[in-house]
Design goal:
The longest helix has 18 residues. Helices cover 57% and strands 13% of the residues. It has one domain: P-loop containing nucleotide triphosphate hydrolases (Rossmann fold, 3-Layer(aba) Sandwich). The chain has 9 helices and 5 strands; from the N terminus they run βαβαααβαβαααβα.
């Protein structure tokens, strides 16, 4: 059993990598976004990027920086199957997972203009924003000294593997396969 954590910038293709791992490789998917959406809905709040960030930060402040990821890791581990956990956003989460057997961190990144076009096409409830808001959201999530808050730049830096996704979906799938081969050589 291997568990791959996915991190990366907004709209870089993290979800596309997850879809490939689940659809073509039989991985079981666990999503921080889905976990947070359930918490937000249970609190009767509106689901948007701001409430997701605030809720995640509150949970981490109350329960520790790795709380959400540990919850998902335990669910993944109980399956006994290869799993993917999407989306790791804090160094505290990585620290919790680094002590686990067979954990690998994969980061996905791409040019900011490409990523903005992708989120506009994706059109989820958290993606309907101007380019300026997109940049502000990214800037807010890229750096923080608080271990409970998003720090994507540090997560990408700590990744075992980084995929630059500035090409086609087919190219992204090929790069994902290359990562899987490297992982299988390490296990």
């Amino acid at each position: 059993m291997i568990i791959i954590g996915i991190t990366g910038t907004l709209g870089a293709g993290k979800g596309t990598v997850v879809e490939y791992l689940v659809g073509k490789k039989g991985f079981v998917h666990f999503s921080v976004r889905n976990y947070l959406a359930e918490v937000i809905k249970s609190q009767g709040k509106e689901l948007n990027r701001d409430t997701m960030v605030v809720t995640a930060n509150e949970l981490r402040n109350r329960n520790g920086p790795g709380f959400i990821i540990e919850e998902l890791y335990h669910k993944a581990e109980s399956t006994g199957k290869n799993c993917v956990i999407e989306s790791i956003r804090t160094p505290g989460e990585i620290e919790k997972l680094r002590g686990k057997d067979n954990f690998y961190l994969l980061a996905v990144d791409a040019d900011i203009n490409t990523r903005y076009e992708r989120i506009k096409l994706r059109g989820s409830e958290t993606d309907n924003v101007s380019f300026e808001i997109f940049q502000q959201n990214e800037n807010r999530e890229m750096h923080s000294d608080d271990p409970n808050k998003q720090n994507l730049s540090e997560c990408i830096r700590q990744a075992d593997f980084v995929i630059l996704n500035d090409n086609t979906i087919k190219d992204l799938h090929i790069k994902t396969e290359e990562v899987l081969k490297k992982i299988s050589n390490q296990t």
